[in-house]
């Protein structure tokens, strides 16, 4: 960990200011790295403070923390704290349709990944940011406009209030808005006329500017309050776009010349379910990533600290759409995941399956991660990944670490650091995007193949014999900092070597077996032919003599 001071010198009047857009995992980690360098760091997050929220909103897919992410956390002194909150997973546990279970190790006995709660990790990182006197997190601030050529951002401030709502019969806290639907129980959208005298319900979806939009969650009796505020412009030396796969910062960069961008929604969605503890303990073996591979779809389960498992069902949207009733769902699970049905519980499954619709997954690629010396993208804003290699967070955290290393190399010179960051990271992030797509096929289908298991065993054997020459792909990606694109090239070369060797070995075995099985017969047949030919020759000679 670097010794850059995080303490703000009171004599410093002018300090380089950095605006981090997005207070998620990558944004808050980046803020820690930059605050350590004594920059003035302001994090702008559109949501409320998740540490104060009564329930979590947004994505909750468990995270798999591996070496790259741990190295980034280590650099800011948080590795031990975060690791202590995770559960080691040393292998995949494959659940066959018959109920048979088999383990496929990730690496050596000492190698494992960690199942981590996204929500708790985000909370810890936000708390870490606020420990720096030169860093501040501004919750409820939505980015409206970004001018990367000048380093100016336009923000809309959002502020929570508390109100007494007599018609609900409870005193409800009015919170910040949720910009994506978080619950299917969200039944109506009202406008609430706000004055110091009274609060009364007006027409649904009214858009009058003097009214306040409220979202009502009927199951929680929580209202989300958004007052209208005048947008404000803020100038900074660097804009750091860490605002996720649907990045507003990136939207403005796309409008710039020679900035190419592509996105791909895969045809599969995901849905989360829960396996609760049984008798106060884990219902399954806790130190595994459990997988139910079913060729075109799959379910996985990761352990939680409260001894539950978070299950995620990945499946084509058209398959989700076929499951219309509780009976459809129960029959589907009985057919494809029979051993999980009693673990989840029939009643809980029938209820939870329809709580939220299946969510989409998107992959994003950009031709550049920066614009001039005033703006740079990191994390999902630069390279959103599908979750099948467990590298989305780890790749985002490595972005932060690489940027920090480049800042050392170029002495905090943004004009040198930003172009080099794009040049360095783009091939790596494109590679892990492609590998993540491939790994979905491996997880849902290949792991059922005996040939796949055989190849994995060969890879492990070769790695044991030649640890620096043959390294399995998963080991390179998950347990090292070998650059992603180098890992992919090396993996492709290793596959060719192994397949070629197996081909020649198989050919040799086939020829040897054929010879052993048919050799005596072949020699006997050849002897018969020779004797027959000799007999023909003999009679021919007799004929000549008699003539």
UniProtKB/TrEMBL annotation:
InterPro entries: FAD-bd, FAD/NAD-bd_sf, Kynurenine_monooxygenase. It catalyses: L-kynurenine + NADPH + O2 + H(+) = 3-hydroxy-L-kynurenine + NADP(+) + H2O. The keyword Chloroplast does not apply. SUPFAM superfamilies: FAD/NAD(P)-binding domain (SSF51905). Pathway: Cofactor biosynthesis; NAD(+) biosynthesis; quinolinate from L-kynurenine: step 1/3. Its main location: mitochondrion. Residues 227-400 form the FAD-binding domain. One of its GO terms (biological process) is quinolinate biosynthetic process. Keywords: FAD, Flavoprotein, Membrane, Mitochondrion, Mitochondrion outer membrane, Monooxygenase, NADP, Oxidoreductase, Pyridine nucleotide biosynthesis, Transmembrane, Transmembrane helix. It is a multi-pass membrane protein. It is found in: Mitochondrion outer membrane. Its cofactor is FAD. Its EC number is 1.14.13.9. The chain crosses the membrane at residues 465-484, 496-517. GO terms for cellular component: mitochondrial outer membrane. One of its GO terms (molecular function) is kynurenine 3-monooxygenase activity. The keyword Glycoprotein does not apply. PANTHER family: KYNURENINE 3-MONOOXYGENASE. Catalyzes the hydroxylation of L-kynurenine (L-Kyn) to form 3-hydroxy-L-kynurenine (L-3OHKyn). Required for synthesis of quinolinic acid, a neurotoxic NMDA receptor antagonist and potential endogenous inhibitor of NMDA receptor signaling in axonal targeting, synaptogenesis and apoptosis during brain development. Quinolinic acid may also affect NMDA receptor signaling in pancreatic beta cells, osteoblasts, myocardial cells, and the gastrointestinal tract. Belongs to the aromatic-ring hydroxylase family. KMO subfamily. This is Kynurenine 3-monooxygenase. It comes from Sus scrofa (Pig).
